[in-house]
Amino acid sequence: MSVIPYRKDIDGLRAVAVLLVVLSHAQFALFKGGFIGVDVFFVISGYLITSIMVNEIDRGIFSFRKFYLRRIKRLLPALLIVLSSTSYFAHKMLMPYELISYAKAQFATLAYCSNFFLWRYFGGYWRGYSKEFPLTHTWSLSVEEQFYAIWPALLLLAYTFIPKRFHTKILFSVFVFLLILSQYLVKYPEFAFYMIPARFYEMFMGAMAALLFRKPIALDKILEKPFVNICHGIGMSLLLYAAFAYKGGLAYPGLNALVPCLGTLLLILPFRRERSLVSGVLSSPVFVGIGKISYSLYLWHWPIFSLLAFSGHSVDKYRYPALLLSFVLSIISYYCVEKPFRKAKISFRKALLGFVILPIGLSFLYMEASLEDGFLNRYAGTTRQAVQSYSIIENSYLEAQLGKSSPTDKHKENKNTIWGYDRPEPISALLVGDSHSTAIRPFVELLCEPFGIKGLQVSRDSTPFLLNVDFFVSDVYGKPVLRKDKREMNNYWRQLIIDKKIKYVFIAAFYSSRIYFKSGFPEHMVHDRIEKSSDILADNKESFYLGLYDTVKFLVDNGVMPVIFKDAPYIETNLSKNYMKNLLFNSHLNTTYPWEKIINRHEFENVAIDKIKSEFPSVVVIDLKDILKNYVKNGQFSPVIDGIPLYVDSNHLNSYGAKFLGEKWITRFGNPLRKVTKSKD
Fold this sequence. Notes:
Helices cover 61% and strands 7% of the residues. The protein has 28 helices and 14 strands.
């Protein structure tokens, strides 16, 4: 068995790391940068794992089997207990769509690739809905395990084939490369935060310390005490600075993560007399005790806080009971699970079967069982109807919505992208735009069905059909970046209309989100006929009008009938979800929004579309507000009608809502395609 000297101060540093993370998730305003606690863990992990490996390699007793057996015994028993408990409550609480995502995330967690899943599922770590997902925190476990999968083999190869005299130069060269890579990758913030290429240098820093300082640093007795105090003081100052000064949305990790990582490195350096004021505090019983339960505390606290948030109960109000429960469960988990299994004599084969293969298999079966409808049979009566309408189960529509991975995102033609797929006649209608076109599709199908119109949906995330418009977005440094792919997608739609001889084009997009923008992350639209200026809002408004005008003119000139859907009313918060939380958890959340704010929000785009309609009379304009205004009470709008939510979030209709509004529209105003088909007959 390998032995390296135990250091209480490192356990104390673990306590600092986990407390920063937990207090940040408990929404204490002072600890907005508490996410840097994960970086502290990464550096410590790289240091300790490499120290153990080097010790065993030097003694000629290193074994991959023993190494991974220790990892299994150290990490998986507690993780399985937490996952089992969380899954029970997730199955009880999460609605179908969230439960399907949870089942996938659970499988990914056990397969140590949850960072991949969360990157694709959530995108940015700081997006609001990630705060209500019980397994968001498992990304760091996957990153660490991916490091463990790579590093032992690399280290052993380096020891075997590279002469020791080159080790130091190679270590520093590799570190510089990894740091530069991480800084480069923050240009892609969603990828960089979750993925190991951007994080590898953090664990590598700890590994470097273990390799370069294999013996305690010996200094002159007179210099050692002040030097260690200064070193530890600077290290802790860097950690606290990052914890208090950093906030969500920061370009991360990159050079920004170097600050807490360097602070951690200064605190873990092995001095011959490592005592200092800081290390003395870290070695105190309180910090050491919290450090010992830090892994369990990290595992337990997030499901508690996330499910509390999901239920609609304020984290601010219940943070102290949630913290107490987190600590109590962590203590029980440490003494009853972590500690006993770490010392247990289990063969590698049994550990692999019992803690890896069997849980992954069971998780896979649960995931497969959830995919059909997210266990909708958990609900009954009107509650079932409300849950079913709110939850996005109709994934076939989403498959017709293209991503952002390629310039043109060539579409597929199958039963998911085409309505009237089995009809012999050619495609004559096209549905285009961003995710709002996906949401409105049931409405479009209702319009087309009486006339046997066969249609194709080719939608794309965050891309409205506005010809001759360039889209600029801000990168993590606030610099404008041209999104060439959006113009290319618009040109692709234009060519598709010509090639397929389309007769009807249905257009829907979240126009107000393109016109207005988030401060700090603006989207700047610039039409070919205007000069780009510093007034983003003015440019966006003019470019929206000119781009839509050019789109409509192109369609009319080519004998195509445009059907433009005005924005579904934007209501800022997810009131449908608030309603569901009230229904399921008695949360007493607000479910209404001032109608006047909705009118003001959409005023410009409404006027612009109406102006275009006046010049091109053949254009059909559908304004959902003409139906929804009839359900406004006392100046307040609710996206829930007769106990059924129409929306899935703050701006997207769900399938029920689109069908409901389509039926109401046809009943009140008639089917606008009827006049066209009659005239063609």
